[in-house]
Amino acid sequence: MIWRNVGNSLMALSVIMALMGWSRVETPSEQMLNYVHQFQQIQIDIRECNVSPDSAARAFQATMRNIQSVLPLLDSCRDDAANRFVYPLRGYLPRYSIGGNGRGFRAKGFDLFDADARGSHPAHDLFIRDGNQDNLDDHMCLPVDLLSFSQGVVLATDTTWQPESELRGGNFVWVYDPCLNGLFYYAHNSRVVVQPGQWVQSGQKLGEIGRTGLNAYKGRSPTHVHMMFLRLDSSYLPQPENPLAWLREAEVKEW
Ligand SMILES: [Zn+2]
Protein backbone atom coordinates (compact mmCIF):
# COMPACT_ATOMS: atom_id res chain seq x y z
CA MET A 1 0.00 0.00 0.00
CA ILE A 2 2.80 2.35 0.93
CA TRP A 3 4.64 1.52 -2.32
CA ARG A 4 1.54 2.05 -4.35
CA ASN A 5 1.20 5.50 -2.77
CA VAL A 6 4.85 6.26 -3.50
CA GLY A 7 4.35 5.11 -7.10
CA ASN A 8 1.25 7.25 -7.47
CA SER A 9 3.07 10.22 -5.99
CA LEU A 10 6.00 9.80 -8.41
CA MET A 11 3.62 9.52 -11.33
CA ALA A 12 1.80 12.66 -10.18
CA LEU A 13 5.12 14.45 -9.80
CA SER A 14 6.26 13.53 -13.30
CA VAL A 15 2.90 14.67 -14.73
CA ILE A 16 3.30 18.00 -12.91
CA MET A 17 6.90 18.33 -14.19
CA ALA A 18 5.76 17.60 -17.74
CA LEU A 19 2.95 20.17 -17.43
CA MET A 20 5.42 22.76 -16.17
CA GLY A 21 7.69 22.12 -19.14
CA TRP A 22 10.52 20.51 -17.19
CA SER A 23 12.42 17.84 -19.02
CA ARG A 24 15.35 15.70 -18.06
CA VAL A 25 18.83 17.13 -18.54
CA GLU A 26 20.60 16.12 -21.77
CA THR A 27 23.76 14.07 -21.47
CA PRO A 28 27.01 15.60 -22.86
CA SER A 29 26.90 13.27 -25.87
CA GLU A 30 23.31 14.31 -26.65
CA GLN A 31 24.35 17.96 -26.33
CA MET A 32 27.29 17.32 -28.64
CA LEU A 33 25.03 15.79 -31.28
CA ASN A 34 22.77 18.86 -31.08
CA TYR A 35 25.74 21.18 -31.58
CA VAL A 36 27.08 19.02 -34.41
CA HIS A 37 23.67 19.25 -36.06
CA GLN A 38 23.77 23.07 -35.64
CA PHE A 39 27.25 23.20 -37.21
CA GLN A 40 25.99 21.23 -40.22
CA GLN A 41 22.91 23.43 -40.53
CA ILE A 42 25.07 26.59 -40.56
CA GLN A 43 27.11 25.17 -43.48
CA ILE A 44 23.90 24.38 -45.38
CA ASP A 45 22.42 27.83 -44.65
CA ILE A 46 25.60 29.57 -45.90
CA ARG A 47 25.72 27.42 -49.03
CA GLU A 48 22.07 28.03 -49.85
CA CYS A 49 22.24 31.73 -48.95
CA ASN A 50 19.52 31.34 -46.30
CA VAL A 51 21.39 33.60 -43.88
CA SER A 52 23.40 36.81 -44.06
CA PRO A 53 27.16 36.44 -43.50
CA ASP A 54 26.73 38.31 -40.18
CA SER A 55 24.10 36.02 -38.75
CA ALA A 56 25.97 32.94 -39.99
CA ALA A 57 29.04 34.20 -38.12
CA ARG A 58 27.04 34.74 -34.92
CA ALA A 59 25.52 31.25 -35.12
CA PHE A 60 28.98 29.77 -35.78
CA GLN A 61 30.48 31.57 -32.75
CA ALA A 62 27.73 30.31 -30.44
CA THR A 63 27.94 26.75 -31.77
CA MET A 64 31.73 26.54 -31.49
CA ARG A 65 31.64 27.97 -27.96
CA ASN A 66 29.13 25.27 -27.02
CA ILE A 67 31.14 22.50 -28.68
CA GLN A 68 34.25 23.54 -26.82
CA SER A 69 32.32 23.64 -23.54
CA VAL A 70 31.08 20.03 -23.76
CA LEU A 71 34.44 18.53 -24.75
CA PRO A 72 36.43 17.60 -21.65
CA LEU A 73 39.86 19.16 -21.50
CA LEU A 74 41.99 16.38 -22.89
CA ASP A 75 45.01 15.06 -21.04
CA SER A 76 46.38 14.12 -24.44
CA CYS A 77 46.64 17.84 -25.34
CA ARG A 78 49.78 17.85 -23.22
CA ASP A 79 51.08 14.61 -24.70
CA ASP A 80 53.14 15.28 -27.82
CA ALA A 81 53.14 11.64 -28.93
CA ALA A 82 49.34 11.52 -28.95
CA ASN A 83 49.20 14.84 -30.79
CA ARG A 84 51.46 13.87 -33.64
CA PHE A 85 50.27 14.86 -37.08
CA VAL A 86 49.72 12.18 -39.70
CA TYR A 87 50.05 13.07 -43.38
CA PRO A 88 46.54 12.85 -44.89
CA LEU A 89 47.53 10.71 -47.91
CA ARG A 90 48.40 7.16 -46.91
CA GLY A 91 51.66 6.01 -48.51
CA TYR A 92 52.61 9.42 -49.95
CA LEU A 93 55.56 11.66 -49.06
CA PRO A 94 54.74 15.34 -48.45
CA ARG A 95 57.53 16.60 -50.72
CA TYR A 96 56.10 14.79 -53.76
CA SER A 97 52.42 15.46 -53.20
CA ILE A 98 51.90 18.97 -51.77
CA GLY A 99 50.63 21.08 -54.69
CA GLY A 100 52.84 23.88 -56.06
CA ASN A 101 55.56 22.89 -53.62
CA GLY A 102 53.52 24.55 -50.87
CA ARG A 103 52.81 27.80 -52.71
CA GLY A 104 49.10 27.09 -53.19
CA PHE A 105 48.04 28.80 -49.95
CA ARG A 106 46.27 32.19 -50.39
CA ALA A 107 44.25 33.38 -47.38
CA LYS A 108 43.48 36.91 -48.59
CA GLY A 109 39.76 37.51 -49.13
CA PHE A 110 38.62 34.32 -47.42
CA ASP A 111 35.21 34.45 -45.72
CA LEU A 112 33.71 31.19 -44.47
CA PHE A 113 30.35 32.91 -44.04
CA ASP A 114 29.95 34.40 -47.49
CA ALA A 115 29.06 31.87 -50.20
CA ASP A 116 29.94 34.50 -52.85
CA ALA A 117 33.49 35.13 -51.61
CA ARG A 118 35.88 33.92 -54.33
CA GLY A 119 39.54 34.05 -55.21
CA SER A 120 41.15 32.87 -51.98
CA HIS A 121 42.57 29.38 -51.40
CA PRO A 122 43.49 29.15 -47.69
CA ALA A 123 44.39 25.51 -48.17
CA HIS A 124 46.81 23.03 -49.68
CA ASP A 125 45.93 20.58 -52.44
CA LEU A 126 47.57 17.19 -51.89
CA PHE A 127 47.82 15.21 -55.12
CA ILE A 128 47.79 11.47 -55.78
CA ARG A 129 49.18 9.55 -58.80
CA ASP A 130 46.02 9.12 -60.86
CA GLY A 131 46.80 9.76 -64.53
CA ASN A 132 43.63 8.05 -65.78
CA GLN A 133 41.46 9.81 -63.16
CA ASP A 134 39.81 6.67 -61.82
CA ASN A 135 40.45 7.59 -58.14
CA LEU A 136 43.01 4.75 -57.86
CA ASP A 137 46.74 5.10 -57.27
CA ASP A 138 48.35 4.23 -60.64
CA HIS A 139 51.04 1.98 -59.12
CA MET A 140 49.06 0.26 -56.39
CA CYS A 141 45.73 0.12 -58.28
CA LEU A 142 44.06 0.93 -54.97
CA PRO A 143 42.05 3.85 -53.58
CA VAL A 144 44.17 6.21 -51.46
CA ASP A 145 43.04 6.53 -47.86
CA LEU A 146 42.36 9.99 -46.46
CA LEU A 147 43.78 9.95 -42.91
CA SER A 148 42.91 12.42 -40.16
CA PHE A 149 45.79 14.87 -39.74
CA SER A 150 45.07 15.23 -36.03
CA GLN A 151 42.65 14.04 -33.37
CA GLY A 152 39.22 15.58 -32.98
CA VAL A 153 35.49 15.30 -33.32
CA VAL A 154 33.84 15.02 -36.75
CA LEU A 155 31.47 18.00 -37.05
CA ALA A 156 30.07 17.57 -40.54
CA THR A 157 30.29 15.36 -43.60
CA ASP A 158 28.70 15.29 -47.01
CA THR A 159 28.41 11.98 -48.82
CA THR A 160 25.72 12.87 -51.33
CA TRP A 161 27.57 14.72 -54.09
CA GLN A 162 26.50 13.89 -57.66
CA PRO A 163 28.16 14.96 -60.96
CA GLU A 164 25.23 17.31 -61.72
CA SER A 165 25.82 19.20 -58.49
CA GLU A 166 27.14 22.78 -58.58
CA LEU A 167 28.69 22.41 -55.12
CA ARG A 168 32.45 22.84 -55.06
CA GLY A 169 33.51 20.88 -51.99
CA GLY A 170 32.04 17.54 -53.10
CA ASN A 171 32.11 14.89 -50.41
CA PHE A 172 33.79 16.65 -47.48
CA VAL A 173 34.70 16.16 -43.82
CA TRP A 174 35.06 18.77 -41.04
CA VAL A 175 37.04 17.78 -37.93
CA TYR A 176 37.39 20.00 -34.83
CA ASP A 177 40.60 19.51 -32.83
CA PRO A 178 40.05 20.90 -29.31
CA CYS A 179 43.79 20.86 -28.53
CA LEU A 180 44.60 23.15 -31.45
CA ASN A 181 41.21 24.88 -31.09
CA GLY A 182 40.86 24.65 -34.84
CA LEU A 183 38.97 23.03 -37.68
CA PHE A 184 40.29 20.85 -40.48
CA TYR A 185 38.33 20.62 -43.73
CA TYR A 186 39.01 17.90 -46.32
CA ALA A 187 37.22 18.18 -49.67
CA HIS A 188 36.67 16.23 -52.95
CA ASN A 189 36.68 12.72 -51.43
CA SER A 190 35.25 9.75 -53.30
CA ARG A 191 34.07 8.21 -50.02
CA VAL A 192 33.62 9.35 -46.43
CA VAL A 193 33.64 6.63 -43.77
CA VAL A 194 33.10 8.63 -40.54
CA GLN A 195 29.96 10.08 -38.99
CA PRO A 196 29.26 13.51 -37.49
CA GLY A 197 29.74 13.36 -33.71
CA GLN A 198 32.40 10.63 -33.96
CA TRP A 199 35.79 11.06 -32.26
CA VAL A 200 38.78 10.30 -34.49
CA GLN A 201 42.46 9.80 -33.67
CA SER A 202 45.22 11.25 -35.80
CA GLY A 203 45.91 8.78 -38.59
CA GLN A 204 42.40 7.31 -38.52
CA LYS A 205 40.79 6.76 -41.93
CA LEU A 206 38.23 9.45 -42.78
CA GLY A 207 37.54 8.43 -46.36
CA GLU A 208 39.18 7.96 -49.76
CA ILE A 209 40.68 10.56 -52.09
CA GLY A 210 38.45 11.41 -55.02
CA ARG A 211 37.27 13.89 -57.63
CA THR A 212 33.95 15.13 -56.21
CA GLY A 213 33.05 18.83 -56.43
CA LEU A 214 32.22 21.11 -59.37
CA ASN A 215 35.83 21.86 -60.43
CA ALA A 216 37.58 18.82 -58.97
CA TYR A 217 35.41 16.60 -61.21
CA LYS A 218 36.59 18.28 -64.43
CA GLY A 219 39.29 16.61 -66.50
CA ARG A 220 41.71 19.53 -66.09
CA SER A 221 41.89 18.90 -62.32
CA PRO A 222 44.37 16.22 -61.16
CA THR A 223 42.98 14.05 -58.33
CA HIS A 224 43.65 15.61 -54.91
CA VAL A 225 42.34 16.42 -51.45
CA HIS A 226 41.83 20.09 -50.58
CA MET A 227 42.89 20.53 -46.94
CA MET A 228 42.21 23.70 -44.95
CA PHE A 229 42.96 24.60 -41.33
CA LEU A 230 40.99 27.35 -39.55
CA ARG A 231 42.08 28.35 -36.04
CA LEU A 232 39.37 29.82 -33.80
CA ASP A 233 40.30 33.20 -32.36
CA SER A 234 39.25 34.49 -28.92
CA SER A 235 35.79 35.37 -30.36
CA TYR A 236 35.40 31.87 -31.83
CA LEU A 237 35.75 33.21 -35.37
CA PRO A 238 37.69 31.07 -37.88
CA GLN A 239 41.06 32.42 -39.09
CA PRO A 240 42.91 30.54 -41.85
CA GLU A 241 46.37 29.39 -40.86
CA ASN A 242 48.99 27.83 -43.11
CA PRO A 243 49.68 24.23 -41.99
CA LEU A 244 52.57 23.77 -44.47
CA ALA A 245 55.31 23.28 -41.83
CA TRP A 246 53.13 20.74 -40.02
CA LEU A 247 52.39 18.90 -43.27
CA ARG A 248 56.08 18.65 -44.13
CA GLU A 249 56.90 17.17 -40.70
CA ALA A 250 53.88 14.87 -40.44
CA GLU A 251 54.26 11.15 -39.98
CA VAL A 252 53.71 9.14 -43.18
CA LYS A 253 51.63 5.97 -42.85
CA GLU A 254 52.60 3.07 -45.11
CA TRP A 255 50.18 1.31 -47.45
ZN1 LIG B 1 42.14 23.35 -53.22
Automatic annotation (TrEMBL):
SUPFAM superfamilies hit by this protein: Duplicated hybrid motif
Protein name: Peptidoglycan DD-metalloendopeptidase family protein
Top-rank taxon: Bacteria
Classification via InterPro entries: Dup_hybrid_motif, M23ase_b-sheet_dom
Organism: Salmonirosea aquatica
Domain M23ase beta-sheet core: 149-229
